[in-house]
Amino acid sequence: MLTVAVLISGTGSNLRALLDAAADPSFPARIVVVGADRQADGFAHAEHYGIPTFMVPFREFESREDWGDELLAQLDVWQPDLVVLSGLMRLLPAAVVDAWAPRLINTHPAYLPEFPGAHGVRDALAAGATETGASVIVVDGGVDTGPILAQERVPVLPADTEHTLHDRIKPVERRLLIDVVRRVATGDLDLTAIA
Ligand code: GAR
């Protein structure tokens, strides 16, 4: 059984979908802990399933590196097989990436390498794109530059706002994320052979 830590910053709707999938006994992975860089609303989903949480509040650390060291210490407690960034809106310092990659994956609301960064949905709209998408990648030292594990196109509709477009992208992200975690767990997807 693959053990997974999920890191979030916000509402955790993608986390919720992964938790729901993992609640099925036939799913080959278990979420063992949910962490965040702040008091995230998404903790409620972990609590719903009785899954432990931890918070490493970014703003309380002197530097990104110090924050990363505490994040590493927390992950060490749980020793997951895989770490999933599911809406963690912080760049990880190199020490965290070096310690966990390639067992460190991220979901992103755009068709990478298009529109990387913190505002993938907004940037696609601002560019006048007629289609965008969702991607699941291995985290590397860059901003959303790691090897792509799964991705799918999502059309941009003329009346879309950032909110409506993101709402249509998220179900695609969830499906891709659940599928990637399942494939890693079954051995269909060997992250060490990719990154
Ligand atoms: C997701 O769309 C995720 O891809 C995005 O934040 C959202 C979190 O939603 N992450 C990034 O943009 C990272 N660059 P959620 O909290 O409802 O799961």
Task: Describe the structure concisely for a colleague.
This protein has seven helices and seven strands. With 195 residues, the protein is an alpha/beta fold. Helix 1 runs parallel beside helix 6 and helix 3 runs parallel beside helix 4.
Describe it.
The chain is α/β, with parallel strands linked by helices and 195 residues long. It has a single domain, classed as Formyl transferase, N-terminal domain (Rossmann fold). 38% of the residues lie in helices and 22% in strands. It contains 7 helices and 7 strands; from the N terminus they run βαβαβαβαβαββαα. Strands 3-2-1-4-5-6-7 form a 7-stranded mixed beta sheet, sandwiched between helices. β4, α4 and β5 form a beta-alpha-beta unit. It starts with a strand and ends with a helix. The mean pLDDT is 97. The protein binds glycinamide ribonucleotide (GAR). Glycinamide ribonucleotide (GAR) binds at residues 8, 10-15, 42, 86-87, 107-109, 118, 120, 170, 173.
